[in-house]
Amino acid sequence: MGDGSLDKRVFKTIAFKFDHKVVLSTPFVERLIVLPKVLKAIIKLMDYVASPINYMIVIDREDVEGEKYLRRATKEYGFELEDFTKIDEYAYMLEVKRGVKTSRIYMVINGFKKSIEENLAQVVELFCGENVDPSKDGIRKWLRSKNISNIELAEKAGER
Q1: Of 54, 61, 70, nearest to 7 (Cα)?
Q2: Domain limits of the chain?
Q3: Rounded CA gap, 11 and 25, in Å?
Q4: Over the stretch 60-104, which tens digit does the pLDDT of each residue have?
Q5: Which among 15, 63, 68, 77 could disulfide-bond with 20, CB atoms 3.0 to 4.6 Å apart, if both were Cys?
Q6: pTM, whole model, 2 decimals?
């Protein structure tokens, strides 16, 4: 999950396409800016939820510094890393243990670029054939000129 209101709206749209029994909102986890905050939120949840449970985390590329960082951060925050599988360039499966509880964390790295705006600009280019300035202002202006919302853009991209 991202750390801004645009991230939240886009991720809600994406999560709707999956069987999301529980979706954590940004306020619950106090602005997920970096991986350690995500891991702290999972630790809190593991304290209250029976094991085993699967977590799916969508995190911005800018908040993950690579495989070594994922492995190190997982251990630093109190997890025993039992298995680490790189599914593809954008996804990992971490099988973790904390005390007697076990879980799987599916980590999906959001986007080809670092920020959500850069990714939305690429979606516009791929699906609409137009170049857009990959800034908040650039995306906002393009959306207004087409009279659509960022949610509608994400939904249209998901339909293809």
Answers
A1: 61
A2: 5-110, 116-159
A3: 10
A4: 777 777 788 889 888 988 899 999 999 888 889 999 998 888 999
A5: 15
A6: 0.61
